[in-house]
Amino acid sequence: MTENPQKEEKKADTWVPEVVNCSEFLAGQEDGLVWLGHATFVLRTENTTLLFDPLLFDSAFLKRRHPLPCRPEELTNIDLLLLSHGHRDHLDEASIKLVAKQNPEVQVLTSLRMAPLLRGMASSLRVQEAGWWQQYSIDWESMGLEDPASPPLEIYYLPAAHWHRRGLTDLNKVLWGSFLIRTQDKLIYFGGDSAYAGHFEDIERQFGPIDICMLGIGAYKPAFMMQLSHTNPHEAAKAANVLRAGHMVPMHHGTFDLSDEPASEPIRILQDVAHGNMLRGELHVPKVGEVLPWTQWE
After folding, report:
1. Which of 28, 86, 222, 290 sits at 20 to 30 Å (Cα–Cα) from 41?
2. Is residue 12 a part of any domain in this protein?
3. Cα(93)–Cα(290) distance, rounded to whole angstroms?
4. pLDDT > 70? residue 77
5. Structural domain includes residue 258
6. What are the tens digits of pLDDT across the range 199-231?
């Protein structure tokens, strides 16, 4: 292991994202997109609430650097739980158990060979697996949709350049990936964890310009360890450009100390890229818990 050349800079960098309470949004019905920190988002559209990669609690290895913008118990009325892959900072057992308990009808959309792992956490979960490029079949009737033949959104499981491991014997036994959500008039892409690779071009070729993308910008140093797992800010901006994204919302930074870069570096670099007109779309840097009015974005 090499010593971090930014060790002192990192130690002195105490930046954390600003946090605002989002309890009112969670209790309501308005459309919006809310970052809860790290890679956890709540997206509401057409009276459907989606929760991505919930990590709501500290663990022995993961300590939050800022508070959650709500009480975990307020994550109710979740219709769809989207789980990109099995790493512990994206698939957290305590969070899964709580979400399952509070949302007994929730439908889980995730990757191939994930169901046994999830049912070991919460046996009652309704789990649907998919491989890359597959569309999920969502049970809209159980959600009270009057016309299931005209669903409010479509969801696809798409590639990512990453890997899986939770124990000693399960290396790459469970698939990893990303999600595309097609609403009535927008395409929303959630990148999960991914290195920069050719799948971004493939996704744009298949679906055309993306309206909104949530892409990771943190946990990229040292590069020799991280570059095959995560995008750095320049690579994330390049991915957004390749996707022809109209809007970019960064994630996977500021919440946990996972790597060698100073806390504020990822967002500072990304903002420099955007200010230098090297980002095709509009950059949104939300506070944790801030409600983004994505349906109003052009």
Report:
1. 222
2. no
3. 26
4. yes
5. yes
6. 999 999 999 999 999 999 999 999 999 998 999
